Amino acid sequence: MKSEKIIVLDGTPSGVDDLSRAREALMAELRKSAREVSIVELREEKFAHCTGCFQCWLKTPGMCRFADRGREIVAAMVQSDVVPLFTPVTFGGYSSTLKKLVDRWVQCALPFFTKRQGETHHPKRYPRFPRLLALGVQREPSAGEAAIFKTLVGRNALNFDPPSFASEVVAAGGSAAAMS
Fold first, then answer.
1. What is the pLDDT of residues 112-127, one digit of tens each?
2. Which domains does the chain have, with CATH numbers?
């Protein structure tokens, strides 16, 4: 029985179409085990950049001060079981399209401090956070950029404390079998 709700955050920038094979391979794999799989193509969404005002911590707890699609996407994300991040690897990081939304995750944390793995972090605002899966796609293979990407995903996971996370980097022109 399919039991998971998955929301894919697609950080593919406008005008980029050479990642479709990797995205379709990801979607096919996810549909095998989930009762509901949806995709948010972030390039088509209008939402503000996080300004670091921290009103989501103090004035409007848990909600960004910008009443836009970013608020709705983060709410849907928190209600999911798994959130795959799909992005071209850009200098070892997320695309700017995806990074803009990842910055908005700060509303999912409390303005207090806790220790995790010997480091100071903010505790979760909500009792649960979805599992994270990050799939980075490279046009030109670079072991260094792949390592940076995986480290970045791990650091974001440490900050937001999901029950589990995984990351992988694949080649844009790779076969669908190699991506699954």
1. 999 999 999 999 999 8
2. 4-179 (3.40.50.360)
